[in-house]
Amino acid sequence: MPASSNILFNALKHHRGFIHQQIKIATPATLPGLLKKLGNSQMDIYYGSLSLEGLFEAVLTHIPVADEAGYLAWLKGEYKEITLSDTSRWILLAGNVPGQYIHLHPARYSPESMRVKAPILKTAIACMVCHPGLTHPDLKMVNHIRTGMLQLSPVKDLDQCQHLWQVMNMLLI
To answer: What highest taxon heads this organism's lineage (predicted)?
Structure first.
């Protein structure tokens, strides 16, 4: 069986527990480097109960081959979707990092996950780092973070922040 070290997984984009840990240790000074890793696309964030180690262990039990050549042959140049015991669905692809040949991410709209655009996730993380404990920053705070820290456009009013509040609430464990 492959090892968890063979899994290519961007936990900052896809695992609530990991994101939560990063929020705890991040500072306003370290935010730019952290948030740069998120890119600008959409992503699905797993918020289920599996830790990273538990997730990797569960995924590896679904891979019926023991090495990279076998894995790539099993994929047949495509991808595989698996369902874990918590009903979450995951996509397995060929990795592009030496040694990390199992590229893993949540399936779109999988149970136990939330689809999020990168600017919303960046705003949520920055709000939570800069204003710890505050679940609904006011418009001035949100726009200061969006325009000053993230170089994003401001929001016109807090009614536009409903998805931001949902993401912030999801990230609170």
So the answer is: Bacteria
